[in-house]
From TrEMBL:
Organism: Helicobacter anseris
Key words, A-Z: Molybdenum
Protein name: Tat pathway signal protein
UniProt superkingdom: Bacteria
Lineage of origin: Bacteria, Pseudomonadati, Campylobacterota, Epsilonproteobacteria, Campylobacterales
Family annotation (InterPro entries): TAT_signal, TAT_signal_bac_arc
Length: 66
């Protein structure tokens, strides 16, 4: 009987601790400042590549994908 009670007490304490950690995490997440205004611009120097469906490969791909 004593083993059952010790398991039960262990589960109670771990549940309480888990709830406390979860509430603390939510409280910290709610305190974060979100001051994003407008569109973000990256600093990448890579060229943007736009794919068009004019090649033979893409035409085959699109016909099979339908």
């Amino acid at each position: 009987m004593d083993v059952k009670n010790s398991r039960r007490e262990f589960l109670k304490t771990t549940t309480k601790a888990s709830v406390a950690v979860a509430v603390g995490g939510l409280a910290l997440a709610g305190c974060k400042d979100n001051k994003q205004v407008g569109v973000l611009k990256g600093k990448s120097t890579k060229e943007e590549v736009l794919y068009t469906g004019n090649t033979e490969y893409w035409k085959t791909y699109y016909s099979v994908a339908k």
